[in-house]
Task: structure prediction
Amino acid sequence: MTTTATRPGDRRVSPVFLGILAVSGVTGWATWTGFAAVPGLAVFLFVTSAWIVSLCLHEYAHARTALHGGDISVGAKGYLTLNPMKYTHALLSIVLPVLFVIMGGIGLPGGAVFIERGRIRGRWRHSLISAAGPLTNVLFAVICTAPFWLGALDGVPPAFRFALAFLALLQVTAAILNFLPVPGLDGYGVIEPWLSHGVRRQVEPFAPFGLLFVFALLWVPSVNRVFFDMVDGVLGFLCIEEIDTYCGFDLFRFWQGTDEYCGV
Result:
């Protein structure tokens, strides 16, 4: 069984993705150097573009794992190009995740790739395909927090430090939400191959509403508090303090004015 895309163009990196990556690099540099006249605007653009990059890589990880698992159709669907417009509807893939970041600092799992599961053989492969996406968020979180747990923050400008902390928070929230064993989320996809056929059939109708159910629960104050306590616990383990993520979110929403405590 071949595990390569049928056409070289199927794996050519999209100019759209490269453009977003370039924005992330330039605004990251502007945040680091203080070049931007409005630090909050640079932080907003840096975090937003880096977040979209992580969304693309999340979906790419699903597709690439599926490709090696036997689904050679992912190349023709454009999933290996890292083009965010290929991962379902632009509204679901990009706009909603960014809106949720602005509204509440939550990394909404965005986008989706449609895997032809009939081509995949073996339950472990199915589980790995589902796990590949959120594991990418975990890797992003480790990279973003590396300067913190390595004690390498000397000389790091405050604005860049806060932006990294907030970006790490988004990755942690996305990983936790994605790993929930709720129909429609990757966590359920990990365990689904191990469930009986009867259980899968009973649960299947609820899959389109799983994410909406989770976010409805997050609006419940007690649930929201438990969720963010968990997130803060993970970030604390990675040596990020709450003040870092608070100031990162504060700078990100620059149009509301910056808290003087977070002044940079």
User: Anything to note?
Assistant: The radius of gyration is 19 Å.
